[in-house]
Amino acid sequence: MKNLPLVLLFVFAAQTAFAQTRLYENPEFDKIAMRHKIIAVAPFNATVELRPNQLKQVTPEELKEMERNEGRDLQAAMYSWFLKRQQRGKLTVDVQSSAVTNAKLKQEGITVDNYEDYTPDQIAKILEVDAVIMGTFETNKPMSEGAAIAIGALVGFWGSTNKAVVNLFIYNAKDGEVLVNYHKAVQGSVGSTADQLINVLMRKASRRIAYTK
Fold first, then answer.
1. Distance between CA atoms of 4 and 11, rounded to whole angstroms?
2. pLDDT for position 4
3. Fewer beta carbons under 10 A from the terminal one: N or C of the chain?
4. How many domains are contained in the chain?
5. Over the range 67-82, which residues count as b (16 or more CB within 10 Å of their CB) and which as e?
């Protein structure tokens, strides 16, 4: 029992390590945002970390498609989050439809696999928006329906514990400057859908995003 405080301290430290939040806001963001009329959310670049026994049950192609589905689901959830606030009159900009965003990216041959070949301002200008939201997503428990389809909806495949790491950027179209960088790592109760994860993610960030009232 004497070691109980040390055990509790270790558990607290471990939980803190998986609940890290880093938020950067460009000091000029408020001023820059006043000139913005429309923003877009691009598909996230997702990575699904499977255990060795899970990897045996999917092909590399299925894993890659699973990751694309995760990235598109995060995009859709983020778009929905902004759209709801726009409908409530709590957003100062319009949000480009995900369908329009994805069509424009496809026309230019841009995918999450070749994002690095383009600068953020180039992508934003192709989308014809004033700012673009992009990011990465890492998880060991996919949330999209596509993930279940990819592995044949295996019961109990993923287990109960999940972690998620989201690194989100808002880039200015004019010069590619980072307006916001929001990094959040959580483990445990992060929800079972992309919408739930985005709500957890944006709960704090929304107070620092100049587009929200």
1. 11
2. 39
3. N
4. 1
5. bbbbbbbbbbbbbbbb
Residue 40 lies in a domain: yes
b vs e for 182-197, b when ≥16 Cβ sit within 10 Å of the residue's Cβ? bbbbbbeebbeebbeb
Confirm if 44 and 67 have CB atoms less than 8 A apart: no
102 Cβ contact list (under 8 Å, min separation 6): 43, 72
> What pLDDT, on the 0 to 100 scale, is given for residue 180?
96
The residue that leads in pLDDT, 184 or 5, is 184
Hey, what are 34's tokens?
């006043």
In a domain, 192, yes or no: yes
Q: How many CA atoms lie within 13 A of 182 on its CB side?
A: 19
Kindly state whether residue 9 falls inside one of the protein's structural domains.
Answer: no
Q: In one letter, which amino acid is 154?
A: L
| CATH number of the domain where residue 142 is located | 3.40.50.10610
Separation between Cα atoms, residue 165 and residue 110, nearest integer Å: 24
Answer whether residue 201 is part of any domain.
yes
- Secondary structure class of 30 (helix, strand, coil): helix
Containing structural domain, residue 25: 19-208
